[in-house]
């Protein structure tokens, strides 16, 4: 398969090992060729993972692509819609309400309107009953408060989608989402708030209590952009792997630990974390970080708008990246299945595991791959 030229400007505009290893692997994973690492601090994916971003895909209010407004993100409907495709996990954001209930919602604030006046409320300042009052209601005939959303350029827009659904709690997700689908639980904290350790500990313990009660055998990965929260949740439990989320140097933060893949490696090694989830641009701009991550015995997943381009995803597979978080679940899951998973399974069945790469539809010589790795950083500088 030839690698098609992809201009970044043509990509849709998006907003952007545990002690019980078996718990990571659901029925969606083929046991053939599965390699498990028994060390508690290691995580090895049994195959190239496809993870649905906020379920079936995030919502972008100003996108010209209707797929970005198809289904309300971070809802039971979005999660189960994603489960219809050959993916392994769904990723979603968890925050804890004022009365200690873990809920699933991405933004730090909820925007609404009353008597012509727009107002905002911080999710963590709301009680569960208040949080659930926004948007569609489960109770027939009940009208919820209107739901608005703030865009990156500061505009307040109606949160309109083609298929809507009500807000949900973490417990509901465990109870109502296809049990074979893994959960990548992002522990969500506001970048502009300084959290004390006792507060972080309390919030994480509340979330872990729900996970303990409802998870059963569901595969789970924890992740967080907050380095202290990521390290703390690793200390509080050793059942599930914890990944550190990073922009990989594509944005600059006051906390230097968030500003590069090299710093991310340090965070993981210091806290005994199992892997990194990076914005893919950060990896493509610094491909030399991938072998460093591997040398540190860490796993690497990615997110970002380039993950909605099949060729960019296949390139990551060749680089040794272990999975991608995507918005276009249907398209990317089918592309991965066709270009990566099926050739691998065919090779394993034939007993030629060592020839898997050669049999793959994605074929590059070592020289070509080296050239591409040098070229990619130049292509995505802007």
Automatic annotation (TrEMBL):
GO process terms (BP): glycerol metabolic process; glycerophospholipid catabolic process
GO molecular function: glycerophosphodiester phosphodiesterase activity
Protein's UniProt keywords contain Hydrolase: yes
PROSITE patterns recorded: GP_PDE
Top-level taxon of origin: Eukaryota
InterPro entries on file: GDPD, GP_PDE_dom, PLC-like_Pdiesterase_TIM-brl
Pfam family, one: GDPD
GP-PDE domain boundaries: 48-336
Keyword Hydrolase among record annotations: yes
This enzyme's EC code(s): 3.1.4.46
Catalytic activity: a sn-glycero-3-phosphodiester + H2O = an alcohol + sn-glycerol 3-phosphate + H(+)
Entry keywords, A to Z: Glycerol metabolism, Hydrolase
PANTHER family linked: GLYCEROPHOSPHOCHOLINE PHOSPHODIESTERASE GPCPD1, GLYCEROPHOSPHORYL DIESTER PHOSPHODIESTERASE
Family: Belongs to the glycerophosphoryl diester phosphodiesterase family.
Protein's name in the database: glycerophosphodiester phosphodiesterase
Taxonomic source organism: Hibiscus trionum (Flower of an hour)
């Amino acid at each position: 398969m030839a690698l098609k030229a992809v201009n970044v400007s043509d990509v849709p505009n998006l907003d952007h090992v545990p002690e019980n290893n078996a718990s990571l692997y659901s029925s969606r994973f083929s046991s053939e060729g599965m390699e498990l690492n028994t060390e508690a601090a290691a995580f090895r994916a049994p195959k190239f993972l496809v993870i649905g971003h906020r379920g079936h895909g995030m919502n972008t209010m100003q996108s010209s692509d209707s797929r970005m407004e198809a289904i309300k993100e971070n809802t039971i409907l979005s999660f189960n819609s994603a489960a219809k495709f050959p993916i392994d996990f769904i990723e979603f954001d968890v925050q804890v309400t004022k009365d200690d209930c873990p809920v699933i919602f991405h933004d730090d604030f909820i925007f609404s309107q009353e008597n012509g006046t727009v107002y905002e409320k911080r999710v963590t300042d709301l009680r569960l009953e208040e949080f659930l009052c926004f948007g569609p209601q489960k109770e027939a005939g009940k009208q919820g408060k209107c739901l608005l959303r703030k865009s990156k350029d500061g505009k307040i827009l109606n949160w309109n989608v083609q298929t809507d659904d009500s807000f949900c709690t973490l417990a509901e997700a465990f109870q109502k989402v296809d049990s074979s689908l893994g959960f990548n639980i992002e522990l969500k904290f506001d970048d502009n708030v300084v959290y004390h350790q006792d507060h972080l500990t309390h919030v994480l313990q509340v979330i872990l209590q729900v996970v303990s009660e409802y998870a059963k055998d569901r595969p789970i990965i924890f992740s967080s952009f907050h380095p202290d929260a990521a390290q703390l949740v690793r200390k509080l439990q050793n059942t599930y792997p914890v990944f550190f989320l990073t922009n990989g140097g594509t944005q600059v933060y006051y906390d230097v630990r968030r500003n590069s893949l090299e710093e991310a490696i340090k965070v993981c090694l210091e806290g005994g974390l199992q892997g990194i989830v990076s914005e893919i641009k950060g990896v493509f701009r610094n491909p030399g970080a991938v072998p460093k991550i591997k040398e540190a015995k860490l796993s690497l997943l990615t997110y970002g708008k380039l993950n909605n381009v099949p060729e960019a995803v296949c390139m990551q597979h060749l680089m040794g990246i272990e999975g991608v978080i995507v918005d276009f679940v249907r398209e990317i899951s089918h592309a991965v299945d066709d270009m990566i998973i099926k050739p691998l399974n065919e090779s394993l069945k034939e007993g030629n595991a060592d020839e898997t790469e050669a049999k793959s539809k994605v074929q590059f010589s070592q020289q070509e791959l080296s050239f591409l790795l040098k070229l990619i950083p130049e292509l995505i500088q802007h």
